[in-house]
Every structure is written in C-alpha cells, then in structure tokens.
Amino acid sequence: MKPLVQAAATLSSASLVGGCLRALGWLRTDSTYVSQTQFFIRKFNICREKSHVAIKILNGYYTELEKHGRIWELEALKQLSSPTSSAHCLQLISNFTLRGRGSAGEHLCLVTQLLGGDIKSLHTVHETVFPLLLAKRILLHVLRGIAHAHSRGVVHTDLKHDNIFFDAHISTETLGNILVSDPPRRHPPEASFDGTVEAAVTQPLPIPTVDEAMERIYVVGDFGSAQSVSNHTTDMITAPPLRPPEIIIGGPWDEKVDIWTFGCLIFELVTGHGLFRYEPLEKYKLDPEHFMLYHMVCYTGEQFRAEQLMVSSRAARFFDTECNLRTSPPLIKYPLEVAIRRYKVIEEPDIYSTAALMRRCLRLNPENRASASELLVDPWFSGVD
Fold first, then answer.
1. How far apart, in whole angstroms, are the C-alpha atoms of residue 256 and residue 369?
2. pTM value?
3. Four-residue CA torsion sign, 108, 218, 82, 243
4. Is the pLDDT of residue 42 over 60?
C-alpha cells in the first residue's frame, strides 16, 4: 500500500534540510497508508540551475523491504537512469535515507524529476473519452518507456492509468507563483502512535486542457512493483482486470506481462472503458478468475495449449485434461473489433487497425506476443510524435 504525498525543501549533500512546500496527493491501498511521499524541493543544483524535483519517501516498513530485497524500486530506477535514461521513464536523480520520528524508523528517499499528474486525473477532470490522436500519443510514449525498461532488464508489472504521468511543463517562476497564490495547507492535528501530526492537504498541480495534453510528454512512473526480468520476488502482479493469463494460471513469466497489460490499455484509452471485468459470472458459475480466462479465449479466438498449461502450477484448477475450461461455458467468439465498435468512439478503419495492434499484444502464450521494440514500428503509430 502506497500513500503518496508531495512537499518541498532544500536538498544538499544527500540530506533533506528545508521545509515542505506542497502536497500533491496520496496513494493508498486497502485501508493502510504506507509507503511513499513526494516532495517538491526548493533548491537542487541541476546543470547549475535551480530546479524543482520530487522526492518519494518510503515508510519504515517499505524501507526495510527494500533493504532486504523484497522490493526492487531503487535498483530498478538506477538501471533505468544510468548510463542513459529515457524521457518516457521516471528518472532517478539521487537517493538518501532520512531518519523518521519515533517508531517510524528510516525512510528511503528517491529524488526524481517533477511530474505534473497522471492520466487518470486527466480523464477524470475532462470526463470525456480521449481523442484518438491523444490516446495514440500517450500510448506511444508509454511504449517507449516500456521498451527502455525492458532493454534494462526491468519489468514494470503494474502499468495502469495512475502510473502513467505527464510532464510538469511549468517554469520555476510559474510554479513559484502557484505556491504563493495557493500556499500549502495542513489538516487539523490528530493523534498518532508517536504524538500529534498535521497531515498535508492534497494540492495537485493544474490539470492541462485536452489541447495542452497533446503537447505533453508522457512518462511511465511508480516502479514500486517493478521486478527484474531474471529474478522475481513475487508472482502476484498487475491489477486483476489487467492481469495476463500466465499469472492467473501460475505459469512462468517475463517482460511480456507488460505487453499484455499494454494491449488492455490500448482498449481503455481508445474507448474509455475496460476490456476485462474481474468479477463473477453467475450465469455460467464462473468466479472472477474463471471469467477472466473465459473472456480471454472469447476475445482472442485462441485456445490454451497443453505445453503452456503443463508448466503452470494453477492450470489444473481451471482446465481439464483436454485443455478446456472445467466449468464448460459456451465459447462465443467476440472479436476485438466488435468490442471496440460497441462504444462508437472511432471510425471503422481505425477500429480494424486498433484491433490489429491489440491482437499483437493479447496472445495467450506470452512467447507469441510482440516485444515493445517491435510494437514501436507498428503502422498504428504512423505520424504520431
């Protein structure tokens, strides 16, 4: 679980010296606030100019997990940022450890570039389906970020709307004016285990218009769930509706899990709706996982093969010895073109080209999926910057 908050201070010699400037938001999972706080920094010497940056501060528990190799965020960011970085991946500028109050323990602090917000907030504010050209721009930038990560042996494993960010696109002067006109605020004091605290009020940066969004650079962020392609610390990855089949059936996996999720995101950004629903289907007595697998077969028109199921530890729960779903629901072909056409958001030629791109990502066997670098030259992205 990962609360995220932002503020600001002076960074000097890997130590946090000054006070907070602004809180941008909290991320939380279930009901527990745990890991990360982001801060604007008042002064940081980059190329001899003062720049605002962000700090993500992990709580004591997550800092201990990082120390013991249970999470891999710091190492992932190091591999992504050196010797060369990508404009479409979060970039590690520095890191240091901060001593917390009382029982909080130590906090690992990750200094990165300042970003403006995520595409979930962009969609929420405008309450409309993204224009196709904007969806293509976002997806192309995400794909470039994925390709860079995979080239460094990093698998993101948690691609979704609130982990895709746009650049801040704001000058130091303008940001200073925002901080003056809308100064930082705090919630009323409340008791904690170590005394009284005053939590920062969330004050995100202004959300761009749709036209402005067409000029933004999009960045794959939050590598808190990232894993090495060759050394996995957990097999429970990816938000359930975006989870690839090999994870559900307990099979071996690699960077191609990100490609499956990317295929789902194509549908979401183009139509404004999710492709899969992680929920039971009472009509056919399918629990959420069975329903996901059933939908995968219907959408792809493929069948799971014995060679894949034989190396998947949970396959017997879902499939019989003939590689059929045990619950025996009627298999109905529902091509991706039909799923896209249902929402009436793009023209017919675009429906076919979008479905063709998705099909390269949504293969039941990960070995058959295209790589990120192969997808980058797909004609669907022609003319997109």
1. 7
2. 0.89
3. positive
4. no
